[in-house]
């Protein structure tokens, strides 16, 4: 990993990419989504504060555990601008996500446990298919092994 002098307070997008491990395109995407910010030079080049390194690490860690970008953006908005997120910040913000992650883990466990049943049912809309037709919701509307498009006659009463 290339070292950057402590005297340098701003990073180019290439330096930020090299130090963070995020692709330049990912950094541009993060910026477009409001997760990080830069200033523009007179030559219209992006410059990022050194604190952006920690913010990118924060974003990537949160993404790895499945936190949506909108939620990450809300979390970062709670931090003062141009301040590196601290361990305490991460602990506080990640604690709020724990319940959501625990619920997702439960849902994934249920999906895993019923996956064999779904493959065994054969049609994906029988009463027993808990994955794509929980509680036989499709059966209340129509019979059959799949949903068919609603047929609307052409104007004037004739079928098309």
Please, could you describe this protein's structure?
- 47% of the residues lie in helices and 5% in strands.
- The relative contact order is 0.07.
- The longest helix has 35 residues, at 87-121.
- The chain has helices at 13-20, 24-32, 51-64, 69-77, 87-121; strands at residues 10-11, 39-40, 46-49.
- A hairpin with a 5-residue loop joins β2 (39-40) and β3.
Classify the beta-strand content into a percent band.
Answer: 5-15%
Helix proportion:
40-55%
Number of helices: 5
H/E element sequence: EHHEEHHH
Secondary-structure-based class equals mainly alpha
The end-to-end span amounts to 66 Å
The Cα radius of gyration reads: 25 Å
Main sheet overview: 3 strands, antiparallel
Kindly report the spatial arrangement of strands forming the biggest sheet.
1-3-2
List keywords for this structure.
160 residues; 5 helices
Please describe the topology of this protein:
Blueprint: E1 10-11, H1 13-20, H2 24-32, E2 39-40, E3 46-49, H3 51-64, H4 69-77, H5 87-121
Antiparallel strand pairs: 1-3, 2-3
């Amino acid at each position: 990993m290339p070292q950057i002098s402590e005297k340098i307070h701003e990073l180019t997008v290439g330096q930020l990419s090299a130090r963070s491990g995020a692709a330049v395109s990912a950094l541009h995407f993060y910026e477009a989504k409001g997760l990080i910010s830069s200033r523009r030079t007179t030559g219209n080049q992006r410059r990022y504060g050194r604190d952006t390194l920690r913010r990118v690490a924060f974003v990537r860690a949160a993404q790895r555990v499945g936190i949506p970008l909108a939620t990450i953006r809300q979390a970062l908005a709670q931090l003062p601008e141009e301040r590196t997120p601290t361990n305490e910040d991460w602990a506080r913000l990640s604690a709020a996500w724990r319940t959501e992650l625990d619920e997702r883990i439960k849902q994934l466990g249920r999906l895993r446990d019923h996956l064999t049943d779904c493959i065994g049912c054969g049609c994906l809309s029988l009463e027993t298919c808990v994955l794509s037709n929980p509680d036989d919701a499709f059966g209340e509307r129509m019979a059959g092994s799949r949903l068919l498009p609603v047929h609307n006659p052409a104007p004037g009463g004739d079928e098309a």
